[in-house]
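User: Last request for today: this protein with fe (ii) ion, please.
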Amino acid sequence: MVLGSTANLKEMDRESVRETGGEAEAGFLWDFWYPAARSSEIVGNRLVTAMLLEVPLVLGRTSEGKALAMRDSCPHRGIPLSYGRFDGQSVECSYHGWRFDGCSGQCVEIPSLSSQDKLKVERIYAGTFPCEERDGYVWVYMNAPGSKLPEKIPPVPQLPVFSEKYKVTHLSCELPSHIDHGIIGLMDPAHGPFVHKSWFWRKRGSIHEKAKQFEPIPNGFRMSKHSPSTNSAPYQWLKKMTGEAVSTTIDFVLPNLRLEEIHSGKLWFSSRAAVTPVRRDLCRIDFVAAWNLFFLPVWIFRIFGKIFLRQDQETMIRQAEGLKYNPHLMLIDDADRPAKWYFALKANLLESRRTGEPVTHPMDGAVTLRWRS
Ligand code: FES
Ligand SMILES: [Fe+2]
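Assistant: Here's the final one, the structure of the complex with fe (ii) ion:
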């Protein structure tokens, strides 16, 4: 499917669709960190599989506790290494027993070699990826196939927190969508009153005109600090609880992050949604939130958070039904302007990587967008 269905967006977007083609038109952004799994899944000598950007991965943890990510494919005959055994140091392939160091991928043993063999075992490598843990996730740096790692790998994204003590929780859900639809769905300000019309969030009838200022930030854009929507119940509760003004800032940053910070007096709430491409027809939202709102227990938040994500997921499942038939699509002003910025940011980044020129930002400066939601 996928990009076929976005291929009749406006010229600019069509451009980005073509540019992101790369590896068989998959539209992925390589050379970024992506969350591959929850840290808590990688325990003992277990090998866990994951897929990012259509690359099969096997994840593990050394006896020293360091998370590792290898391409889930033996360089000998391609059988997934995840069928093999891991001893906390090296992975033994299930087919002919070659062993590879889990962190470097270097081959350390080929059991079939005789004393006559001259093969330099240490010159054979299984594929590995930089791997780090942050905010309860195992992140993998997905460098483009066949490309070298950059000299300096950027830092792993980290959820901002604003006090020593806080609660934190994680939610995730899969969307049967191309990453672009996952992301523009996440950034879309106009679906709220229709998709998220729960009693606890907002009613469809509460739709009204809004004006929000946006500003450019590196690799993304920011909905400037403002007092949040008067038709979203949680913000109203917060204001009542603290008696102080509530402010919120929402950032979108390439390749896939939506960050929201809410402050009211000393109380704060911080969240990050990462929409990660698994395959070209599947992405996953990994949502993590932290807060010091004493009146908000984790279990309550999770109930509402799950309902909220489920509403988005159901919508994307239905959208995928329609996209199968390659319909004409459009992006309108101003409600779809964030989506246009996303496509332009992505296209400009790829262009800059191609030419070596600095990335041009699609926004000249702050702008106010108006829509009803
Ligand atoms: S396929 Fe892995 S050792 Fe032969
Ligand atoms: Fe939504």
